[in-house]
Amino acid sequence: MIRTLLRSSSALLLALVPLLPVPASAAEDQHGTARPDPVVFVHGWNSDGSTWQIMADRFRAAGWPADHLDLWTYDATRSNATTAARLAEEIDRVLERTGAARVDLVTHSMGALSSRHYLKNLGGTAKVDAWVSLAGPNHGTDAARWCGGAPCIEMRPGSEFLSALNSGDETPGSPRYATWRSPCDMVISPGSSVALNGAVNNTTACLGHSDLQADQRVYEEVKKHLR
Q1: What does the DSSP assignment read for the chain?
Q2: Do residues 110 and 45 touch, judged by C-beta distance below 8 A?
Q3: Is 35-226 a CATH 3.40.50.300 domain?
Q4: How do the domains of the chain map onto residue ranges?
């Protein structure tokens, strides 16, 4: 009799299991579909987050939730090390807001430098899945000799900041690194500055320095890298 009751109780519990609510994963939407990592966009010198609008709209149309696209604006007159600390705070806010475990970083021009400092020196590799540099002066640019202030000095070839940033492993940790350079970019000189050891280094069609952010083909390649 007791065994019969136990078997009946077990059968009832098994029947109810599918009816119990299952907590949704932070990486899935309400339909159980895997959600992409949030994307934090990092602009360059003398710029702001609005320059990413075209690319962000394309990501949104491709299925990225609006709250997973962060067109971050920062004070580009400050040292890249200072910006890296602010970026760390921004990424923590995005992770808390979205419930994601890691973000993807998509950077343009000088934005590559603060984000790389974050990855190398501020523990960012644990919070970033994929990193993208569009026209980044990763080894400096002669154009920075014509502007002043801390970030411009840091962008000059051979600067103390760049020497430290590029010492040892240029692509540390587990993030997937990729760069894009244009043969017609007149701002990054020499053009070879963009490529990094350990990254997937790409060359675009003949595009201007800021055109990489809006180019359809570059977007498609970046999206494939993030996926």
Answers
A1: -HHHHHHHHHHHHHHHGGGS--PPPTTB-TTSPBPPPPEEEE--TT--GGGGHHHHHHHHHTT--GGGEEEE---TTS-HHHHHHHHHHHHHHHHHHH--S-EEEEEETTHHHHHHHHHHHSSGGGTEEEEEEES--TT--GGGGGS-SHHHHHHSTT-HHHHHHTSS-SS-SSPEEEEEE-TT-SSSSSGGGS--TTSEEEE-SS--GGGGGT-HHHHHHHHHHH-
A2: yes
A3: no
A4: 35-226
Q: How far apart are CA 36 and CA 31, in angstroms?
A: 14
Contact between 73 and 100 under an 8 Å Cβ cutoff? The reply is no
Residue 191, token pair as written in the block: 């053009």
- Whether 166 shows a pLDDT value over 50: the answer reads yes
Work out whether strand 39-42 and strand 176-181 pair parallel, antiparallel, or are unpaired.
unpaired
**34, β-bridge pairs:** 28
Do the Cβ atoms of 186 and 114 come closer than 8 Å? no
User: Given the structure tokens 């026209």, which residue do they identify?
Assistant: 135
Closest CA to 154 of 117, 184, 192, 187: 117
CB 152 within 8 A of CB 161: no
Please state the pTM of the whole predicted model: 0.86
C-alpha angle 111/84/68, rounded to 5°?
70
> What integer pLDDT is reported at residue 7 of this predicted model?
43
* Rounded average pLDDT over 83-108: 98
Torsion angles phi and psi, residue 112, rounded to 5 = -65, -35
Within 8 A by CB and 6+ apart from 2, the residues are none
